[in-house]
Amino acid sequence: MPFPMDAKAILKDHIAKIVSLTDEQFDYVFSHFKQQSYKKGQAIISEGDKVDCEYFVLEGCLKSFYINDEVKMFILQFAMPTWWASDYNALYNGGRATISVDCITDSQVLCLNSADREKLCNEIHPVEHFFRWRTNKGYVAAQKRLLSFMNNDARHRYEELMALYPALYNIVPKQLIAAYLGVSRETLSRLYNS
Question: By residue range, what is the domain housing residue 84?
């Protein structure tokens, strides 16, 4: 899968929704990203890996997941175009990955390593603001999802997911949506068909 010709424009538009950078500043920021291509099913991060990058999705769809001792998969996140993914605990704390990230579809990403992110944040204040905004947004989303798990039944969680991200149902296999919702594939089928 060739890289999108407009990889630079995709990232620039994404950042510009939050902060303003001059063309020179953005070119400098972009020079720190590495373009990478992955095939469907290919691992980007595996449990136990040293994690030093986060990934900005240009094309495709990723999933972040955990497999417990009973070999049950729990999906933490789907990452579609203009979303970010990594094992953030390992990335920020210098530990080994406790979750895995792989590709649901062939995917194109931009990779930014931790040292370069910190360097950019120190050198360009709007970049630091952008990453702080992004982190805060991630915390809010995680809190909303956790509260939904505590307060809502499977049907409500399914309807909420489909209302927020209707494209997921055409991209993500149903067993992965079930794992994200914390239900069986059969329960998801009942929810979808009722």
Answer: 7-137
